[in-house]
Automatic annotation (TrEMBL):
Signal peptide: none annotated. It comes from Linnemannia gamsii. It comes from the Eukaryota. InterPro entries: Ribosomal_bS16, Ribosomal_bS16_dom_sf. Pfam families: Ribosomal_S16. HAMAP family: Ribosomal_bS16 (MF_00385). Belongs to the bacterial ribosomal protein bS16 family. One of its GO terms (cellular component) is ribosome. This is 37S ribosomal protein S16, mitochondrial.
Length: 107
């Protein structure tokens, strides 16, 4: 079974995560099948957190049957790749700020 997880990198007290595809029973520190993007949980000066994601490959792995972890599922839900999971005690999940894919300039 294949899963999509966050692999922790960075220094002590300065986490930085890679969004990776790997076998579900292997540790996130092992070599992944593919790296889909990165996630920096430390906010910038403007208060936003940096997320890079390859939308096409993420959709492919979800279509193949890869199961995202809870934290990756929240990132993918903000990117409108999967529907948001309902939270306990809430009837409808609240809409959050979506992640927009990068736009390519047309010539």
């Amino acid at each position: 079974m294949i899963s999509i997880k966050l692999a922790r990198h960075g220094l002590k007290n300065t986490p930085f995560y890679h969004i990776v595809v790997l076998q579900s029973r292997s540790r996130p520190t092992r070599k992944p099948i593919e790296q889909l993007g990165t996630f920096n949980p430390i906010p910038n000066k403007d208060g936003s957190k940096d997320i890079t994601l390859n939308f096409e490959r993420a959709k492919y792995w979800i279509g193949v049957g890869a199961k995202p972890s809870d934290s990756v599922a929240r990132i993918l839900a903000k990117a409108d790749i999967i529907p948001p999971r309902p939270r306990p005690g809430m009837l409808n999940p609240s809409p959050s700020t979506p992640i927009k894919p990068p736009t390519t300039p047309s010539a």
